[in-house]
């Protein structure tokens, strides 16, 4: 699919559309003349978004609630792209008191919710359309305290790759998005250094460009991804010793 800034026939649904990468995607796609449906769980935030961006359509629902999703999405809706961007991150701070409630929350938001959305949205995607999942570059390597987040995104990767095989005969493409560190309200709470971090507007541009090209994997920034993939080749013992050197 070629990029065309005058192509205003495309209808794009974006979850998590009121902040971070999602809001930047809404702005980026609307700037290209595309019809955008911004989804979120806060009606107040959606109303504010509609004031800021005249012409945006909005849908309010909780992505972890199958019933709410079914009620919110109109039967007659048809879309060209569905960008499933909404997600969450919680770290396991005390592994000796492992919190399964935390684990369940993260898995539900980052893995089960995209499955709920896929169930509702796949029949709405036009022939030649695309389903995109915002995952994470964290799936390349195991990181400390990321048991829940990493597992949820690794599961999402497999889900997306498997869907890509089964949706191809229906002429629906699937894109898996692997951002590095991006400045968002979610990453603002991180207490560790985030190398090569980019802003959400930059991330949105890269995502849209990749979707326009029909890329199955959209990973950025390139230098960060290259380093991560290179480090992935190191023996596991080296990784463990690196992360545990301050605990010795």
Topology:
Elements: E1 11-14, H1 20-31, E2 35-40, H2 43-52, E3 57-60, H3 66-72, E4 79-84, H4 100-121, E5 125-134, H5 147-167, E6 173-179, E7 182-183, E8 198-199, H6 200-212, E9 217-220, H7 222-231, H8 236-244
Helix pairs in contact: 1-6, 4-5
Core attributes:
248 residues, alpha/beta, Rossmann fold, two-stranded parallel sheet, 9 strands, disordered N terminus
Task: Give a description of the structure.
Belongs to the short-chain dehydrogenases/reductases (SDR) family. InterPro entries: NAD(P)-bd_dom_sf, Sc_DH/Rdtase_CS, SDR_fam. Keywords: Oxidoreductase. Pfam families: adh_short. The protein has one domain (11-247): Rossmann fold (3-Layer(aba) Sandwich). Helix 1 packs across helix 6. Helix content is 42%, strand content 18%. The protein has helices at 20-31, 43-52, 66-72, 100-121, 147-167, 200-212, 222-231, 236-244; strands at 11-14, 35-40, 57-60, 79-84, 125-134, 173-179, 182-183, 198-199, 217-220. The longest helix is centred in the middle third of the chain and has 22 residues, at 100-121. The strands form 2 sheets. A 7-stranded parallel β-sheet has the order 3-2-1-4-5-6-9, with helices on both faces. Strands 7-8 form a two-stranded parallel sheet. It has 248 residues and is of the alpha/beta class. The model is unreliable at 1-6 (pLDDT under 50). The protein is globular, with a radius of gyration of 18 Å. It has 8 helices and 9 strands.
């Amino acid at each position: 699919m070629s990029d065309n800034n005058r192509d205003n026939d495309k209808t794009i649904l974006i979850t998590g559309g009121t902040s971070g990468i999602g809001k930047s995607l809404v702005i980026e796609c609307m700037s290209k003349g595309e019809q955008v449906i911004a989804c979120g769980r806060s009606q107040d935030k959606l109303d504010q978004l509609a004031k800021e961006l005249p012409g945006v359509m909005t849908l309010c629902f909780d992505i972890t609630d199958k019933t709410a999703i079914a009620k919110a999405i109109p039967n007659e809706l048809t879309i060209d792209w569905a960008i499933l961007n909404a997600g969450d991150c919680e770290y396991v701070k005390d592994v000796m008191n492992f919190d399964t409630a935390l684990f369940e929350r993260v898995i539900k938001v980052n893995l089960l919710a995209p499955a709920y959305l896929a169930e509702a949205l796949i029949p709405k995607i036009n022939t030649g359309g695309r389903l995109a999942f915002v995952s994470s570059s964290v799936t390349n390597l195991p990181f400390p305290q990321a048991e829940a987040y990493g597992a949820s995104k690794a599961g999402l990767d497999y889900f997306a790759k498997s869907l890509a095989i089964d949706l191809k005969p229906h002429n629906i493409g699937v894109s898996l998005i692997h951002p590095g560190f991006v400045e968002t309200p979610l990453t603002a709470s991180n207490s560790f250094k985030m190398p090569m971090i980019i802003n959400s507007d930059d991330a949105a541009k890269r995502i849209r460009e990749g979707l326009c090209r029909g890329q199955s994997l959209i990973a950025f920034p390139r230098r960060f991804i290259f380093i991560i993939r290179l480090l992935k080749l190191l023996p596991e013992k080296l990784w463990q010793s690196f992360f545990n050197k301050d605990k010795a």
